[in-house]
Amino acid sequence: MKSSAPGKTISPVEITITQFGLWLHLHDEEFFLTYQDHPYFREARLNDIYKVELHHKTHLYWPDLDVDLDIPILKNPHHFPLISRRKTPKKKSTL
User: Fold this and answer.
1) Which of 42, 54, 64, 84 could form a disulfide with 35 if both were Cys (CB 3.0 to 4.6 A apart)?
2) How do the domains of the chain map onto residue ranges?
3) How many whole angstroms separate alpha carbon 83 and alpha carbon 74?
4) How high is the mean pLDDT in each 10-residue block of the chain (95 residues)?
5) Cα separation, 86 vs 37, whole angstroms
6) How much is the pTM?
7) Alpha carbon 77 to chain centroid distance?
8) CA torsion sign, 8 to 11 to 23 to 19?
9) Which helix or strand (DSSP H or E) is residue 7 part of?
10) Where are the beta strands (DSSP E) in the chain?
């Protein structure tokens, strides 16, 4: 028995979430985004992380997180030294 051909890819980016950050797989390349360098992903909801759009083949956008990343920046981060300094919000005490 022969399987049918795979269907159309519905997401431009394959995302794997780990305790240390996110793996992004697109265009036959992989990129690892640490939570230390990309803190906006640490407390994000899974649905918000997986809802990513690819624009112009090099621009990733997470609309619900208002996060934009370009592939050239991911490939050569040392050429673009500006890194987010946003702190993850601390949970309020319920005392």
Assistant:
1) 42
2) 14-79
3) 12
4) 61 90 93 92 95 91 93 83 60 57
5) 10
6) 0.70
7) 15
8) negative
9) none
10) 14-17, 21-26, 29-34, 53-55, 59-62, 67-70
